[in-house]
Each structure stands twice: as structure tokens, then as C-alpha cells.
Design a protein that fits this description.
Beta-lactamase; single chain; alpha+beta
Length: 418
């Protein structure tokens, strides 16, 4: 009983830190109350403490909710080694591509309001995309098919990022830098319209700037700046109070440091939270990778999705729209997805999330029906609707590593007893 209390009381203290508003927090429960084992969840602590001791991580948070209740909220190591600051429940993280699901949800909110259809050509709203070219056999040729809004959401648009190989298209991304934080979304569109597509829209899955283009569409559909729409229609209703495109002065003390391995078994600082670019407002609000957030905020977002589009009586999305997000939208012929050389066998993509449709050698600790994604600084999350389970892992180390996710996933599933 004593160990159970040690696990729950820190969560209660953490939640009290966020009670300055009248927002209703996710309830806290002992693992046994929702069919999980405290003793088995304790193995998660052991793994993370080991990673910290071995200097594989500076610090980390692992948060677990089941049946809408938080059963584990573990903080480990330091949020800032140089200043000897311990990781705290309210630490703010660069979530990079975890921004994508939030942006997609914002766009789908407007879909629910009838602002567009998923199979509308993007050029209907962005005329610069009317006559895009595709790079084929060493030359640019007119595209045979228009990219659609659905293509953007599921990464079948033909757009790229500039880090997938060294083709002529990738070189143009590196040279033109369409995702320039100092720029703006209309300028991004102008730059992208001059770069050939990497493939014919709809014929391939390739990770890309598609969700950044979706941010520009949100501006066009809503008549508001993307960052303002996101704050008003997603973050405020869900009380995601620390999710934004920059870290204001009053929150810098909670902003984590970002690290990378130095090649000698130590970590080196690559972004000092006291001098980071995130301390100033972004010109280009990157819906694909520009947000910062907290574990608590992201748990709220995911619980809304797991609940079918609502949280604590506030509806954000229709249930049928959430089903589109969390179920595979890719034709079999362009599966499985991959970033790099290794195919993620059994993994497709919905509208905003990767989706597990069958088991295979990729991520053997996962389960069919799971949806999730991660961010470049090794943040990660997954949701298992069948198990009513939400897991968020937060750390700050680049390049991206699956280390934490793969180390704790099976342990967490094994802790489910009924």
C-alpha cells in the first residue's frame, strides 16, 4: 500500500500546480482501480532511472492514463543539466512533429463546420498549387493529378522535407528553405510552388511539409492567423495552457534543455533554454513541427481524441471525424510507411496519426489498433483504444531515438491485468 501511495501522491501534487484556473483536470487513480498493476508499472521507473544513470538521457517524463484516469506520472533526471534543474511535471518541451496531430485536429474542426471537403484539390484554396510539376527521370513535368487536402493530412501529397535522400528535389528544399521560422506561411507557399513534387500525389507515402501547408489552409478557411486559430479553437477549450509556438518570459524557468550524444558516452547541449530561438515569437507558425508543450497538455489532447472528440463536456471534433484520424487511410499498395530505409511493417497512416493495422517485425511491443507519433527530440506518444490507454513520453535528445518508447511499451501493456 505504501508504494501505491508513493506513486499517486506526486501526481496529485503535480496537478495542483496547474489548478490556478478553473479547468477540470484528468482524474488520478491507483493503477489497480483501472485494472493495472502498480508493481509492474514500477519497472518503468527502473528503466528510466537506468537510462539517466547511464547518461543516455538527461531527463524524461513518462505519463500513463487508462480509462480517462492518470495512473503514472514519472519524472526522471534533469530538465537542464548545466543548471542542475530537476525534471518537473510542468516542464516545457520542444515537441516538433507531435505538433502535426494538433494541427490536423484544428483543420478537421473546420471540416466538421463544412469549410471544405477532404478530397478538394488544395489548389481550390491555394492557386499557386494549380500547376505544380513532378520530378520524373531527371526532369520536371506537369503533375497528372492534383494533391488533395486528404493527401496533405496523410502525407501522400508529393511534398517532401529535404532530408529524404539527396535527389534534385531534396536539394531544392535544402537550398530554398521553405520552412523558415523567420518567414511566414504565404512565403512558404510561394517557395513550395516553385519546387517540383517528389512524386505524383496519391501514389506514395513520404513524410513532408504537408502539415505546414495545412496550417496555411487553416488561415484561408478561418480568416485568422493560424497561431491565433489554434490558440482559440484547440488550446483554450482543452486548457492546453502551455502549448504555443514560443516560450514566454514567465515560463522560461520551465523550459527544458535539448541535447545530443557527444560520441563519448556523454551528452552535449545543443539548445540552451536561456538562449533558444523559442524565446522569441515565430514568424512562420510551423504546424508540422513548431510547437512547445507539456506532458499534461498533450495528455489532455490525446484523451479528447480517445474520447471520440470531447473532453469534460467540451466537444472539439465529431466522433466520425476522429475515426478518420485514427484509422488507416492509406491504400495497401503504398503501405507500409517508412522514414529512412527500414519499412514499418504493419503500420499505415490516418489523418494525423500513424496507425497499427497488423503486427510485424517493426515495434513488436505494439498492438493492432494503436495510433501515435513522435517528435524530432525523441518525444513520443501512443494510444490503444481497445485498452483505453494513453501514454506520453517526453525527453529532449536528438537525433530521434525509439529507445524510451520501445523500452517501456511492453512493460506498460504487461501491467494491464483486466
Amino acid at each position: 500500500m505504501e508504494n501505491k501511495h508513493k506513486r499517486i501522491f506526486p501526481i496529485l501534487v503535480a496537478l495542483s500546480l496547474w489548478s490556478v484556473t478553473a479547468a477540470r483536470e484528468l482524474p488520478v487513480a491507483k493503477p489497480e482501480e483501472v485494472g493495472m498493476s502498480s508493481a509492474k508499472l514500477g519497472k518503468v521507473d527502473d528503466v528510466l532511472k537506468g537510462f539517466i544513470a547511464e547518461k543516455k538521457l538527461a531527463g524524461c517524463i513518462v505519463a500513463i492514463a487508462r480509462k480517462g484516469k492518470i495512473v503514472h506520472f514519472g519524472t526522471y533526471g534533469k530538465m537542464d543539466v548545466e543548471r542542475d534543474k530537476p525534471m518537473t511535471p510542468g516542464s516545457i518541451f520542444r515537441i516538433y512533429s507531435m505538433s502535426k496531430a494538433i494541427t490536423t485536429a484544428a483543420a478537421l474542426l473546420l471540416f466538421d463546420e463544412g469549410k471544405y471537403d477532404l478530397d478538394d484539390p488544395v489548389s481550390k484554396y491555394i492557386p499557386e498549387f494549380e500547376e505544380l510539376s513532378v520530378w520524373r527521370e531527371g526532369q520536371a513535368e506537369p503533375a497528372k493529378r492534383q494533391m488533395t487536402v486528404r493527401d496533405l493530412m496523410r502525407h501522400t501529397s508529393g511534398l517532401s522535407y529535404g532530408f529524404v535522400g539527396n535527389s534534385a528535389v531534396e536539394k531544392r528544399y535544402k537550398k530554398d528553405k521553405p520552412i523558415d521560422r523567420a518567414g511566414d506561411l504565404p512565403t512558404m507557399i510561394t517557395k513550395l510552388s516553385g519546387i517540383p513534387l517528389a512524386f505524383e500525389p496519391g501514389t506514395k507515402w513520404q513524410y513532408s511539409v504537408s502539415i505546414d501547408v495545412l496550417g496555411r489552409l487553416i488561415e484561408i478557411w478561418s480568416g485568422k492567423k493560424f497561431e491565433d486559430f489554434l490558440a482559440e479553437r484547440i488550446c483554450k477549450p482543452l486548457d492546453m495552457k502551455d502549448t504555443a509556438f514560443d516560450v514566454p518570459k514567465g515560463k522560461v524557468d520551465r523550459f527544458t534543455a535539448n541535447y545530443a550524444p557527444n560520441g563519448s558516452g556523454e551528452l552535449r547541449l545543443i539548445d540552451d533554454p536561456a538562449q533558444s530561438r523559442y524565446l522569441t515569437p515565430a514568424g512562420l507558425a510551423s504546424g508540422g513541427g513548431g510547437l512547445v508543450s507539456t506532458t499534461r497538455d498533450y495528455l489532455r489532447f490525446l484523451q479528447m481524441v480517445l474520447n471520440g472528440g470531447e473532453l469534460h463536456g467540451t466537444r472539439i471534433l465529431k466522433k466520425k471525424t476522429v475515426r478518420l484520424m485514427t484509422r488507416n487511410q492509406l491504400p495497401k499498395k503504398i503501405m507500409p510507411i517508412r522514414i529512412g530505409p527500414i519499412p514499418r511493417v504493419g503500420v499505415g497512416f490516418g489523418l494525423g496519426f500513424s496507425t497499427r493495422v497488423s503486427m510485424g517485425p517493426w515495434d513488436p511491443g505494439g498492438r493492432v489498433g494503436e495510433f501515435g507519433w513522435g517528435g524530432a527530440a525523441s518525444t513520443h506518444y501512443w494510444v490503444s483504444p481497445k485498452d483505453e490507454l494513453v501514454v506520453v513520453t517526453m525527453e529532449q535528445i536528438m537525433p530521434y531515438s525509439f529507445m524510451t518508447e520501445w523500452a517501456v511499451k511492453k512493460l506498460i501493456y504487461d501491467a494491464i491485468e483486466k
